[in-house]
Write a structure and sequence with these properties.
It holds the Pfam family Lamp2-like_luminal. This protein is an alpha+beta fold. The chain is built from 1 helix and 11 strands, in the order E-E-E-E-E-E-E-E-E-E-E-H. Strand 2 and strand 3 form a beta hairpin.
Length: 187
């Protein structure tokens, strides 16, 4: 079950499953700051709250002291994206949360994410994507060997062409012997 609140500067997405045994709330903020280029706006994931019930038996078997717990983030600044764009990231990202159950470590693993909490032009339509730094780096790592291979191939072709042209131009010239002992046969 999903629901949310959309505002101009604050938005919230709430996802619940297994009859509300698990609830994930994502809080977004839209902010602006002054730069040398003027006012720039961006949005970010500002807070996460995850509520889980250890008495639910699907994921927790034989839990000690089963009850509801809450894990949340503090002063989070994730998924930072320029205003008017959607955030896209195929790579896996990990966000650690602090739980009320001190025996449990809670981590939120995000992968294949596409989200846009503000400036939505139409239902089910994302604006231009802003790729996460990990995806940008992976794309560069994939294309860099291709670019270097093309440059190396081009250098080899140019070198062979220059050698071929030089060989054609010098092939018809009379070769003057450099060894003086061969001069007596000339003439």
């Amino acid at each position: 079950e999903m629901k949310g609140k959309c505002g101009t500067n604050e938005s919230e997405l709430e996802i619940t499953w297994l009859e509300q045994a698990y609830t994930l709330k994502l809080f977004f903020l839209k902010e602006g700051h002054n730069t040398s280029r003027g006012q720039e706006a961006f949005w970010r994931l500002s807070r996460i709250q995850f509520t889980y019930d250890t008495s639910e038996r699907t994921y927790f078997k034989d839990a000690v002291n089963p009850r509801k717990h809450t894990a949340s983030s503090h002063q989070l600044s994730a998924l930072v994206t320029p205003a008017g764009k959607s955030y896209e990231c195929q790579a896996q990202q990990t966000i650690s949360l602090v739980s009320t159950d001190h025996q449990k470590s809670v981590q939120l693993l995000l992968s294949e994410v596409r989200i846009q909490p503000f400036d939505i032009a139409a239902d089910f339509v994302f604006s231009e994507e802003h790729k996460c730094p990990v995806d940008q780096r992976e794309q560069l790592e994939e294309t860099l060997p291709l670019i270097l291979g093309l440059i190396l191939g081009l250098v080899i072709v140019i070198t062979l062409c220059v050698y071929h042209i030089h060989h054609k131009l010098t092939a018809n010239q009379v070769q003057i012997p450099r060894d003086r002992s061969q001069y007596k046969h000339m003439g």
